[in-house]
Amino acid sequence: MSKPxxxxxxxxxxxxxxxxxxxxxxxxxxxxxxxxxxYTDMAEILSQIPxxxxxxxxxxxxxxxxxxxxxxxxxxxxxxxxDLNDPLLAALAHKPGQLQQQDHAYLLESCFxxxxxxNLHRYPDFSRLWNMAEHAKxxxxxxxxxxxFYSDLVTWYHLAWLGETVRQRNFVARRLIEKGxxxxxxxxxxxxxxxxxxxxxxxxxxxxxxxSGQVELTTTPYAHPIIPLMLDFNTxxxxxxxxxxxxxxxxxxRERAQDHIDLARSHHAExxxxxxxxxxxxxxAVSKDTLAMLGESGFQWCxxxxxxxxxxxxxxxxxxxxxxxxxxxxxxxxxxxxxxxFFRDDRLSDLLGFEYSRWDCQDAINNFxxxxxxxxxxxxxxxxxxxxxxxxxxxxxxxxxENALPFLTQLYQSIIDHEDYxxxxxxxxxxxxxxxxxxxxxxxxxxxxxxxxxxxGDRAKTRAxxxxxxxxxxxxAHADALNAEQKADATEQLRICEGSDWCWWFGDYNPGAAxxxxxxxxxxxxxxxxxxLGCIAPASLDEDISRGGGDAEGGGTMxxxxxxx
Length: 565
Hints:
Blueprint: E1 5-13, H1 30-47, E2 54-58, H2 60-78, H3 87-92, H4 101-110, H5 116-119, H6 124-138, H7 147-161, H8 164-169, H9 171-179, H10 185-211, E3 215-219, H11 227-231, H12 253-272, E4 278-279, H13 288-296, E5 301-304, H14 306-313, E6 330-332, E7 339-343, H15 346-355, H16 361-378, E8 386-392, H17 405-417, E9 421-423, H18 426-432, H19 459-478, H20 484-497, H21 501-505, H22 512-532
Parallel strand pairs: 1-2, 1-8, 1-9, 2-3, 4-5, 5-7
Antiparallel strand pairs: 6-7
């Protein structure tokens, strides 16, 4: 009799550090918008299905930003804070007559940034606002759009970004959606209060799911750094021999990597009540030394991309008879450095991320179950086969009907109800079936194409690293002269600059507007680091790093795991 196939969903929650270094204001609103939609929905969907299980990863620098938003909103609503640190939230909170001409332009630019088919034209009153704006633009008559238009627009934008579970079940959300137009100051204040409660409840919601045994929570090194590159730029050459890399290594890279790892473990324990057993290295970026550090630091398991396994084994495992090597965990390293590594099933993960949103819900679920049946058949005779579906837990769902609430609910339930499958978590799986197979050589890479080319290798990405190297040298030269509080501030700023997101966006294949945003924000963060060190920022930080101009799939927020996907 064949053993059940263990199925593990691993949802990764991460947003860049959007708070501007010099003003403390948020440059882009995606942290709180995803918090009130995707982080809320994912937890609520699981809580409504008692037998459902999943693994959810929260990057500590994301959690810190959610906490910052929640604190500011609480203080604002209590009257102890007079301004909000996000311009979009400030627009939602405006009192009659407060919006200025520049606010109108900002709202016209910002409040249609969502999936139009799924979350804008779904609501006739929101759709009407879009048509009014398009008509006004085409007739050079934007100035005739009155204050009631902008009040309704900013309200509808936030209603459309609420989680589907919130829109269906929360009284305030339902009342405002039914009202549809003519939103008052009190309506908007009620919505702001709802948003504040959603952000404040995220840690407790997830602690409850952990306590119920439904969710395993994991972490990523604090500010999402690409640790293999911090340790050794030459790891990029293992898969891309002609990659352009800096002429010198990142100064003190091992110490900096350990700082991100240690802080992630303590930060996670403080927020969620337990030390995480598992780790998603930023972008699944791994190397032999990276995994050794994770193992030494106390992590029992980690995960990365399927193509890393292809490269490590020196052949395409999907061309192997049965493709069985992908469907069990591997031990990497020795002694205290040993860690268990799971590998992402690119096909299933990318179907969820990019394809099923365009399908009929039931057809998509049937196809997923068919794919599982194929894996179950190919893994017959294995002692404990497991398939790991690992993906962005936030950016895919707005492309689905009702933020994927019907799809995910039925998908979880279909797997639960099938005797051939066991929906579980990584730690529960390992408790029953410890890894036994040893991976003798690990090739450095990430979940994207199995290499590190998304973060280094072309002139723009490598230039970003060179600017960071210079800033780190300034930190090493001046940080010890600061008092304890000043040094702590400078160290936190250095962590932010070491995050992976800046180099993710640099490149001609990404949209120009997004590249411009991240280029400017990265250089502002570096300038702030110099300021905190008491140094003059170099003139090189006034020069653009990258300009983009491409049309990356999904706007560049997500990528497929395989280069040929």
